[in-house]
Amino acid sequence: MWLQTLTIVASLLPFTTATNLYVASYAGTVTTLSLTETNGSLALNITHVTQDCAPNPSWLTLDQPHGVLYCLNEGLTTLNGSLSTFTTSANGMLTHVQNISTIAGPVSGVLYGSASGARGIALAHYAGAAVSTWRLADDANVTRVQNLTFTLGQPGPVTDRQDAPHEHEALTDPTGQYILVPDLGADVVRVFSYDFNNLLLTEKNPLRALSGSGPRHAAFWNPYGIACEGCTTFLYVVGELDSSVTGYRVTYLPNGGGLSFSQVWRSSTFGYLVQPVGNAPAEIHVAPSNRHLIISNRNDTSFTVPNPNANANPANTTAIPSDSLSTFTMNVDGTLSFTQLAPAYGSYPRHFTTNAAGNLVAVGLQNSGEVVILSRSVYTGSVGPVMARVEIEGQVTAVVWDEEYALGRLGV
Ligand SMILES: *[C@@H]1O[C@H](CO)[C@@H](O)[C@H](O)[C@H]1NC(C)=O
Ligand SMILES: *[C@@H]1O[C@H](CO)[C@@H](O)[C@H](O)[C@H]1NC(C)=O
Ligand SMILES: *[C@@H]1O[C@H](CO)[C@@H](O)[C@H](O)[C@H]1NC(C)=O
Ligand SMILES: *[C@@H]1O[C@H](CO)[C@@H](O)[C@H](O)[C@H]1NC(C)=O
Ligand SMILES: *[C@@H]1O[C@H](CO)[C@@H](O)[C@H](O)[C@H]1NC(C)=O
Ligand SMILES: *[C@@H]1O[C@H](CO)[C@@H](O)[C@H](O)[C@H]1NC(C)=O
Ligand SMILES: *[C@@H]1O[C@H](CO)[C@@H](O)[C@H](O)[C@H]1NC(C)=O
Ligand SMILES: *[C@@H]1O[C@H](CO)[C@@H](O)[C@H](O)[C@H]1NC(C)=O
After folding, report:
1. Sheet holding 188-194: strands in order across?
2. Whose alpha carbon is nearest atom 1 of ligand 1?
3. CB 140 within 8 A of CB 148
4. Which atom of ligand 5 is nearest to the CA of 98?
5. pLDDT digits (tens, 9 = 90+) for 281-340
6. Does residue 27 belong to any structural domain of this protein?
7. Which of 43, 92, 143, 155 pairs as cysteine with 47 (C-beta 3.0–4.6 A)?
8. Residue 374 is part of a domain; what is its CATH number?
């Protein structure tokens, strides 16, 4: 009986595979895209749009095992930001659960806690110079835990951006014991331990970055693929204000006492290439193969690429300027070897994520108002060309993959 049902259901499915992606835009929308493959060609189609994280969605954190999407509204012109929660579904529909007011300017969030115990989300607030934490529940309804607000004794050297602390990202270390928060205004990466029961954060000694570098985002790397306190661990920090990538060897202090950092690498995000004036790198990720580091560059206009409108109007041969993605190969001593500068196929790649296989990169192009899917060689790390693209209303701020439904639609 079970097998019969399975056969009937399977025979009704079209001969395509589907993967969902969620896209945040400052225009107020969270859009679900369906990425489909038919006979070797990819297509990106909009399947659902919600305004329930309006007015200014800035970040998405997916809790895939629980089927919950957390969306941050930066509130660019309002006193407060907000945290909106949605439940996900295979057909791309997002069901809104909650919109809860926060300190101003949330721009990044990370899940923390333990799978079997208390679980939370920690948010970095750029405008509010704060970190806030929230307890998660199975019904996707969050409750407030803590606010931590920071002050700056002296403004930093880049006066228009370093007038105050600006928390720009929240990430966990590979063991899940610490939360790190790069602060673009204060030139530090803050380090917090937390209580596994009540989820309260305790601040530890921060990583002090180069003055004026403007730490924006960061990524951990375990070269041997194993995470533990004694395991070889590196941290790479992107400096938005001086267009740098700095690598540190990370040492765990005893008894949950925090982390210490010693610098092993520092270069421009362009490696040995000449760094364009005005470049402002944004996102940094270690690719799933664990061998390459990818960084997005904004406002560098390193490339000229074919006009994306040419298919609709082949007579229009205007080329467009494009920003870029840098790929470095990571060496086991923490140093980096510059590997490739690839076009991002548009302007301001504020955010990107790879799929689980690491052979596709979804890029959120803020100023182009587009998401592009780029191919990627898992072996060499080289990125490009464009496999699919779709226009999104307004400025794109984040794009995340939800591959849970790609293969498991029948629950087998
Ligand atoms: C699939 O793609 C191949 C190679 O491009 C082509 O020869 C073939 O006709 C296509 N099949 C279908 C059903 O479109
Ligand atoms: C999906 O998007 C492709 C272009 O990427 C387009 O050719 C196709 O018609 C769209 N399909 C649907 C069902 O809208
Ligand atoms: C969510 O809450 C924020 C902060 O209170 C508010 O500004 C925003 O309009 C709300 N969004 C929606 C869609 O209700
Ligand atoms: C909203 O912002 C104001 C001004 O920063 C602050 O006093 C208030 O506590 C915030 N509300 C919430 C719920 O964070
Ligand atoms: C969410 O939790 C709050 C208490 O923090 C409660 O007032 C509210 O009714 C809950 N909402 C849902 C949808 O469960
Ligand atoms: C956090 O801040 C908000 C607004 O500033 C306030 O409403 C809330 O009570 C604070 N929560 C804690 C735990 O301090
Ligand atoms: C972009 O770069 C140019 C120099 O090429 C610079 O004048 C401009 O201020 C930069 N824009 C931003 C928003 O950083
Ligand atoms: C040609 O393409 C450019 C770049 O995408 C676009 O800005 C312009 O509006 C297009 N012109 C026409 C006539 O379609």
Report:
1. 171-172, 178-183, 188-194, 201-208
2. 39
3. no
4. 13
5. 999 999 999 999 999 999 999 999 998 888 788 888 889 999 999 999 999 999 999 999
6. yes
7. 92
8. 2.130.10.10
